Amino acid sequence: MSGSNSILLRVENLIMHFATTRGPVQAVDGVDFELGVNRAVVILGESGCGKSSLAKAILRLLPRNIAKYSGRIYLHDRDVMQLSDEEFRQNIRWVEMSLVPQAAMNALNPVLRVGDQVAEPAIIHMGMSKAEAMEAARTMFQRVGVAEDFLTRYPFELSGGMRQRVALAMALVTLPSLVILDEPTSALDLLTQANIFNTLKRIKKELGTSFILITHDIATSSELADDVAVMYAGQIVETGEAKDFFPDPLHPYSKMLMASVPRLRADQDPQFITGQPPSLISPPSGCRFAERCPARFEKCSEEPPVIERDGRKVRCWLYA
Amino acid sequence: MVVEAPSLVKPEMDQRQVLLSIQDLHVWYELRRFGFGIVGYVRAVDKVSFDLHRGEAIAVVGESGCGKSTLMKTILGLVKPRQGKVIFEGKDIAQADAATLKWYRSQVGYIQQDPYGALPPFMSVRRILEEPLVIAGVKSREERTDRIHRVMEEVKLYPVEDFLGKFPHMLSGGQQQRVVIARAMILNPKLIVADEPVSMLDASVRVEILKLLRGLQESHNLSFIYITHDLSTVKYFSERIFVMYAGKLVEQSPIGELLQNPLHPYTHALLSATSDPDARNALSFREVPPGEPPSLVKPPPGCRFHPRCAQMIQGLCEVEEPPEFMPLPDHRVACWLHKEP
Q1: CATH 3.40.50.300, applies to B14-246
Q2: What is the pLDDT of residues B145-181, one digit of tens each?
Q3: Of B203, B233, B288, which is closest to A191 when you measure between CB atoms?
């Protein structure tokens, strides 16, 4: 995550645990990463690795059963964890960072016109008048590729791809510097998906927005990624620039994850990872991937250090 | 047409027995309005014909709403076609009586997309697997138990005893999908229809399940219909590929040939929209046809892809529907660009 750009977001030792009757679920457990201005980082991981929880932790969208929430989140060098909930709601959420939630196309209010829904964050967070906000919504509709006359339609009149674009317009209408996309295209068709990624690329270029893309679709994620962070069992095990990561992942888990991707244009036999991720209630001590790792050795029973190497970071004893 | 080029098809394929033959299939759903009767039709599958051989694996590829699920439901005998035939071992399933359908359902296994939704939450793995045997009239308890054990070992759910008493919510996504596969396999079917069998699973498990299915298909010489929208998994799985668009079969070809040389502009678009993980992808825009698939109530006249097609021929494509051409041996395409001279 070097790059010449300045840093927009720096997350340090972020922890979010959920309370359950069987003990705390360590969904996000000591996450560190950085994101530059006008860059996109993709967080890769299997279901249950804590990647959606990470998005919620960054936006402070906490569930009721929160057991532990700590760490530092610097946005433009300002520690937003120090803000009260009310200050965070007024000045950060949707103003500086917004979210396109998972299955966003089904998250729209069915009884409100989509134009009003897109204008709402601008009225609430930017203090715009209704007319100004509608104008902002109109502009944003053009940017995301939805025809203007759709402003007065209801969600059920729109196709899935269109609704996804509306959700994107809603996240962008306040012109935040960071947009978090949680599985933005997983429910969409191939061509619609490619179209939406084209739109995201254009927006990144034109508006200078930074993105955190959370997905398990590795192939598609490469359409937007400048940087990659791989998450496993609540921790980030590797970070690096996409151009270094995709051809040569370092962590054994990253290597196996990349080898599991079926490829259209190469004739390699995809491999699978045996075993299952550990429980996040009682994760193993030491390296959390050790049990499934083909390269494990005695050291792995101890907590692995984060090793820096040519601007990349990897949490593995092999590189110590 | 005269074919001079060497055939790309393995010679034994032609001699293989046809197991399932789809002939001129039309599946239209009625649109009713209160007081007006039928006001139109959703032409979900329109004039589709193909043969599936014994032991052959085919893939049907297309976007949602292209009719691939309706095609599958018709093959499973769940939807009656408006016109056309579904012939399985010489019997027309579309017109079959209840007894024939019961026999047919023991010959065809179905693997659903969402394993959790497909398994009854209140039944243990043993009951889930036993029920088809009871319905099929396997009276002896020992035989049922024996067959359940055998099929569970085949889908690698072992130690079997550990799984028999479990309920679906106690299993991981991959294990649930194995139970679904075991249930589809337990009556020793000749044909398996798999509807997006791995799309709900994680990347690492996905490959494991695909390999399992491929292994079962080969060891049991099963015919296999693999329905998917993911082109990158198709080549590991099937011999022939069928591309559907807006209710029509637009292209069919052996898999390697289609990936090398897609003929229909829609197939071309699908292939170029499929990414491989590569950091260079972020540097350029993908070529994607504009717009969205048409309504199946009032499909566009002529070729259904013409409103989105960059190579549309004025005065032809929007007027006349393209018939199926065969510009290369065993490679059929419904597109005017490949009209035989």
Answers
A1: yes
A2: 999 999 999 999 988 999 999 999 999 888 999 999 9
A3: B288
Q: Which of residues 68-87 of B touch A (CB under 8 A)?
A: none
Q: What does the alpha-carbon distance between residue A35 and residue A2 come to, in Å, rounded to a whole number?
A: 9
A218 contacts chain B (CB < 8 A): yes
Q: What is the DSSP string of A202-213?
A: HHHHHH--EEEE
In angstroms, the separation between the Cα of residue A128 and the nearest Cα of chain B is 33
Amino acid at B32: R
Query: Are B206 and A226 within 8 A, CB to CB?
Result: no
| Burial class of A115 by CB neighbour count within 10 A (0 to 12, 13 to 18, 19+) | buried
* Residue extents of the structural domains in chain B: 14-246
Asked if B275 and A263 come within 8 Å (Cβ–Cβ), the reply is no
Flag if B202 and A47 touch (Cβ within 8 Å). yes
Query: What is A7-87+177-285's CATH number, 3.40.50.2000, 3.40.50.300, 3.40.50.1980, 3.40.50.620?
Result: 3.40.50.300
- What's the pTM? 0.88
Domain ranges of chain A: 7-87+177-285, 104-175
Chain A touched by B295 (CB under 8 Å): no
Spatial separation of the C-alpha atoms in residues B111 and B58, rounded to whole Å: 15
Average pLDDT over residues B82-103: 91
The verdict on a CB contact (< 8 Å) between A272 and B273 is no
Say if the ipTM goes beyond 0.90: no
Cα–Cα distance measured from residue A95 to residue A125, given in angstroms and rounded to the nearest whole number: 6
> Nearest-CA residue of chain B relative to A255?
B204
- Check A223 against B271: CB less than 8 A apart: no
- Write out the DSSP string of B78-113: SS--SEEEEEETTEEGGG--HHHHHHHHHHEEEE-S
* Rounded average pLDDT per 10-residue block, chain A, 320 residues: 69 94 92 94 91 93 92 93 93 93 84 95 93 95 90 90 91 95 84 90 94 92 95 95 95 94 86 87 91 92 92 93
Which residue of chain B comes nearest to A247, CA vs CA? B278
